[in-house]
Amino acid sequence: MAEKIRVFPKGNLIPFILVTSLFLFWGIPNNLNDVLIRQFIKSFEINRLEAGLVQSAFYMGYFLFAIPAASFMRKYSYKTGLIFGMLLYSFGSILFWPSAIMGKYVYFLGSLFVIASGLAFLELGANAFIAELGDPRTSERRLNFSQAFNPIGSIIGVLIGTIFIFSGHEPTPEKIQVMKVAGEYEGFLRSETMRVVAPYLVLGGVVFLWSLMMMKIKFPEIVDERTEETTGKMSYSDLLRYPHFLKGVIAQFFYNGAQVGTWSFFITYIKDYTGNGEKIGGFMLTGTLVAFAVGRFASTFLMKYIEPRKLMGIFSVVNILLVAVCVLFPGWIGVWAIFATSFFMSLMYPTIFALSIKQLGPRTKIGGSVLVMAIVGGAVFTPVMGWLAQSVSMTAAMVIPLVCYIVISYFAFSGAKIKKEIFA
Fold it and tell me: How many other C-beta atoms are found inside a 10 Å radius of the C-beta of residue 187?
């Protein structure tokens, strides 16, 4: 009789569910950023390049805190690291209130940096914990399932932003001049800035309460945590012997550049090439995130029949074609092409992560921290896209995601294959 391979951990469903919920929680601020970019362009009267700094500040938090997060969790545990990350996340959200009162764009960037610093703990801890919590042969499926709740958080984030942050009031240059003459314009800008406060205060409160609940739950010991106790100190240089891991870091860097850049400027693309306003753009962004969520669940199912690596390769080729369409055919055809890319990009982050940490053993945490650092691709590529959109066109900016998907297709079809490394 064939052995039944379990996807979900027997006897550890409560910790599995609690950690899976974190994927939803960090999806909310990730995609609230897409709303903030459009909102700050209006309320602080900044250009697209400056607005792209929202993602730079955010993802620099990931980049700078990934290694400290790994060290923290190696010293303590996944659970302690996750709770600490949630407290940082909550604190950063609450900082939106004083940032709005002071009315300075740079203070909001600082608040976003603090939120992302906490998310670095969550991304590293949750991804590695879920991948390790069960049979390694089903790690990709298990992680794709948990990651499927991330776009649900993304959808919630964009809906919150569209409904509660976007006012729908987009005055024309002529109307702005009339408001300035009447002495109303400064008050309008301040009211638009204050609209971001309430959603973040509520979010910070909910996350804080969730962290208190996690403190009460006992977590299982993970294999790599037991192994770390006997292997002693490990160096990041140990990871150099794993070519599939190094190529995975590069693929993750480019993937996050594609995802963050695409979603950050989707509303702008709609405004530029269809003439529709921020509300329509916000609801379209919500729709593409629904496609992303559906893609995650569909991918988890398809991986029963298609090797995860090959499935990711097929999806990356489809996205190369779709982004090419949005570049060549700006307008509603291009909008729907971008819309569809979310379905096919959905499996990429968790699959790259799971493939990259395979056979790392006790090096899983430090390897995971480098993969989380690779999220900085979103900080690098988004301002570049903003500059191209500002100086050339929005279609020119979309060439960046196209190049990113070419890199991912290489990793899927070749780079992710595990060679005969020397294991120690």
Answer: 11
| CB-based contact 143:356 (threshold 8 Å) | no
Give the pLDDT confidence score for residue 2 in this predicted structure. 47
**pLDDT for residue 230:** 47
pTM score of the predicted model: 0.77
User: Burial of 40 by CB count in 10 Å (0-12 exposed, 13-18 middle, 19+ buried)?
Assistant: buried
Question: Is 423 contained in some domain?
Answer: no
Q: Enter the tokens of residue 204.
A: 């910070």
pLDDT in the model for residue 424: 45
In a domain, 233, yes or no: no
> Any idea how long the chain is?
424
Domain at 395, CATH number: 1.20.1250.20
Kindly report, residue by residue over 182-205, the tens digit of the pLDDT.
999 999 999 999 999 999 999 999
Task: Please check whether residue 12 is in contact with residue 138, taking contact to mean a CB–CB distance below 8 angstroms.
Answer: no
3-state secondary structure of 269: helix
> Is 43 in contact with 173 (CB distance < 8 Å)?
no
Say what percent of the chain tops pLDDT 90: 45
Identify which of 21-25, 299-303, 353-357 has the greatest average pLDDT: 21-25
Contact 65, 152 (CB under 8 A): no
Calpha distance 410→251 (Å, rounded) = 9
Domain that holds residue 291: 13-218+241-415
Residues 46-57: tens digit of each pLDDT:
887 788 788 788
- Residue 422 inside a domain? The answer is no
Cα R_g (the chain), whole angstroms: 21
Angle formed at CA 154 by CA 153 and CA 155, multiple of 5 degrees: 90
- Amino acid in the structure at residue 101: I
Q: Which residue has the tokens 């932003």?
A: 161
**Nearest-angstrom CA–CA distance, 36 and 44:** 11
The domain tally of the chain equals 1
